Amino acid sequence: MQRFKKTIDCCWQVWAGNQYLLNIAQQQVSEHRGKNTYIKYVPNVIKIDRYYRRGKETPFRMLWIGSQSTSKYLYQNTEILEALGEKFHNLKLMVVSDFKFELENLAVECHAWSESVELEQAANAHVGIAPMSDDDWSRGKCALKLLQYMAAGLPVVSSNTGANAEVVINGETGFVADTIDEWLEAIDVLQRQPRTARKMGVAGLKHVQEQFNSETWVAQQLKWLSIEDY
Q1: What pLDDT, on a 0 to 100 scale, did the predictor assign at position 135?
Q2: Dihedrals φ, ψ of 143, to 5°?
Q3: Which of 2, 24, 29 is nearest to 13 (CA)?
Q4: String of DSSP letters for 64-112
Q5: Which helix (H) or strand (E) element contains residue 46?
Q6: Residue 208, pLDDT score
Q7: N or C: where does the chain have the smaller number of CB atoms within 10 Å of the terminal CB?
Q8: All domains of the chain, ordered by start, with CATH?
C-alpha cells in the first residue's frame, strides 16, 4: 500500500480501474492539499468485435479464465465447486489457463491459454464464473474476466466483491453469489431456464458495449490528456 501511495504522490493524473481504487486515490490526494492531482475513473475495457457466439450443446459448461496467479480463487472456492458438481451431474468446468486443476465431484477440462482458445471456449460455454475472495488485493482487481464473458454473450455468476460487484447487474446480466446456496441457485436457474440465460447474455453484451467499450474510453482518455483541459 505504501508503494501505491507513493506512486500516486508522483502523478498529476491518476486513472483508477474501480471505485475501491478511486476512493484510495482520492483519500491520498486529500492528505496533500494544494497538490494538483486529478483522479479519474477508467475501467477495464474490451474489444468486443473479437468475440463470437455459437449454439450451445450439452454438457452445461461453466467457463473460468485466469492464470497461475489467480488460481487461488478456484482453490479457495473448491467447496462451492464440489457442491455444484454433487448437485448437477450434467455440468463441466472449463478452465483456460496455464495450470492444471482437478476436482472430485465436478468434471474439469483444462485448456492451455492462447487468444484463439480463449475465444473458442467463451463461444462454447453456457456461463462465465468468477469466484473470488474478499480482501484488499481482490477489491483492487478490475473485473476483466466478467467483461470477457459478457463480451461473448454469456450470463455470469460472480462473488459479490470489488469491481465484480460493480460490473454485474444482479438478476439482469447474471448473478452475484457468495454462499454455496446462492451459487447452487444461480446455476440452477441458468440451466433450467435457457431463455433467461440467453436474455442475461444479451443484456451483458449490451452493458459491455455501452459502458466498457475500448473505443469510447480511448477517446475520453485522449481528451483528459490534453493540456488544454487543465
Answers
A1: 86
A2: 65, 30
A3: 29
A4: EE--GGGTHHHHTTHHHHHHHHHH-SSEEEEEEESS----SSSEEEEEE
A5: none
A6: 95
A7: N
A8: 2-45+213-229 (no CATH), 48-211 (3.40.50.2000)
